[in-house]
Write a structure and sequence with these properties.
- The structure holds 2 protein chains of 2 kinds.
- By secondary structure, chain A is mostly helical.
- Chain A is globular.
- Chain B folds into 2 domains: 194 residues, Response regulator (Rossmann fold), CATH 3.40.50.2300; 154 residues, 3-Layer(aba) Sandwich (Rossmann fold), CATH 3.40.50.2300.
- In chain B, 44% of the residues lie in helices and 19% in strands.
- Chain B is built from 15 helices and 15 strands.
- The radius of gyration of chain B is 21 Å and the shape is globular.
- Classes of the chains: A mainly alpha, B alpha/beta.
- Chains A and B meet through α1, α9 and α10 of A and β8, α7, α8 and α9 of B.
- Chain A: It is found in: Cell inner membrane.
- Chain A: Keywords: Amino-acid transport, Cell membrane, Membrane, Transmembrane, Transmembrane helix, Transport.
- Chain A: Pfam families: BPD_transp_2 (PF02653).
Amino acid sequence: MTMVLGIPLGVLLGQLLLGLINGAFYALLSLGLAIIFGLLRIINFAHGAQYMLGAFAAVLALKYFGVNYWAALLLGPLLVGVLGMLIERYLLRRIAGEDHLYGLLLTFGLALIVEGSFVKLFGVSGASYPMPEQLKGGYNLGFMFLPVYRAWVIVVALIVCLATWFMIERTRLGSYLRAGTENPKLMQAFGINVPLLITLTYGFGAALAAFAGVLAAPIYSVTPTMGANLLIVVFAVVVIGGMGSIMGAIVTGLAMGLIEGVTKVFYPEAANTVVFLVMVLVLLVRPAGLFGKEA
Amino acid sequence: MKMLQKTASAILASSLIVTAAQAQVSDDEIRIGYLADMSGTYRDLSGPGGLEALNMAVEDFGGQVNGKKIVVFSADDLNKPDVGANTVRQWVDERNVDMVTGMVASSVVLAASKVVEQSGKLALISGAAASSLTNEFCSPNHIHWTYDSYALANGTAKAVLASGGKSWYVLTADYAFGHAMEADITKVVEADNGKVLGKARHPFPTSDFSSYILQAQGSGAQVIALANAGSDTVNSLMTASQFGVTQSGQQLAGMVVFLNDIHAMGLDVTQGLMLTTGWYWDMNDESRAWAQRYFKRTGKMPGMVPAGIYSATTNYLNAVKASGSDEAQTVRKQMMATPVNDMFAKNGTIRADGRMVHDMYLVKVKTPSESKGEWDLYNIVRTIPGDEAYRPLAESKCKLVTER
């Protein structure tokens, strides 16, 4: 077998594929963060909690109402999205235009409250979510065994990411959104309801996080702290991609997944740190991030 | 030097006799501190449930021993050694606490037990895994009750080796506990002519294990050992199940797996897993009866750690009763002289190094069809006699053993 740096090519390919799957999660999560920051200028520390809420929505809906996976994939984001809109309408709006720090503190506080309550209610061991029947099993790719579910994750995450990018960058609604953040007063003068747009945007960002949560439920253990552990990496991804850049978030998310995947083969001890190393290097060379516009 | 030591111990012994003769309880109250992780990773392992078990023990004594009231304090150590150590210091200095129990995360316990030793109090450690607590870090001021990493690695690894698993791959949590466990496993495997083909050290904590599982699959080892705990073990097992590890003929061996982990993952994922435990609620009539009482109060079946806390506390209070004192060394001596016979252990004995030696159980996780209820999770495969389960005194590096 062909060897690359002492590792068989097949093994490396397998690891790259797994990296891409993790990258798909990073991309989905950082996309929501990037949209919220880009349009609201809010650093949404509640994003991890919203991801966790999505996963728990799926678990609880199945347990108490028998809602299946496919319905949960819609229901989870919808519920969390509505919750997000309420948070924007009644809390975040009060501090609009204030220093970034207020938004950060508010969302961080919310995340702590939600996660703490879930620990109280469900404990820390969490719950498991059964794999949907249609997505059980796996493909033998010759160099690795690829579970069907992981293949599904990467496909659906990429579709959602690209659809979101298309909506914001290429449609009329997206152009309103972007214009609304550039100059809200002018947009208002044109008769566009900017506050409603902003509420919808935050709700959509939260819904994206919840969608990732439902996707994650069958493969990771669903615990109240599942989001908090992931959030820091996702923030690093957003910073590397350039705060607020949609395409930057998607591309960087996937790339960081790949880089992590390779690190896990050659030096697993550094797997959690490599993303931050990249972040430092990128910030040294391009302070606005890879895809960010210089301020 | 020998002479000096002899004199010193003679003086010590006579002072003990004096204390015992006075037979008194400080402040006319028996004060117990419960230190555990009440909000983090180990909350479900011990946390509020362990405190409930402690309260059950206190209530069984009617809240008093020989007319002296039992008072319980509790605190969250947040899994931080400095917080744990400071809490214990405060308890000792300000509240004159006599005994500390719970004691979960090994890192916290190592720090807190030093404070206990300096202040001459007693700790009954139930939650922590590190076997170093009765080896290089042993002390005359603590007793390690429920289990330890040596017994778990020893019990599970030997059973897997005996069933034919000779080549191993070790997946290790990259911190002190994981490294110690990895060393214990390697030792057991190599002693039995097995071979460790490879290992990966993953950051603590990790949520995605697919990469490591794939590496372990690629290694061709017959057995994949998990030298990690808590959510890391849960995620490793779930990932292994998705990647068809057992279907491809490899066997998994979880080293530190608790009842609450199995309950959280469900039997679909965990069926067939071998693990070692210090206690199981469905072992005998006594354990079942106690577990039912616990269940009524908490809504959960107890794992070995809450059961160990109840047992340790009960034996402690019995020793206070018998000796009429809550002075640490008097009580310890009394406890060492009395075999442990309760819902937790039969003929358990406390060794000189502070290890409570009792039988351990090798169990196999039931299949979903075997299980008759939410908490019906284990089949006991073998009872491992205490002497075989724990590190023999002959190998001990404990100062209480080597300097005798």
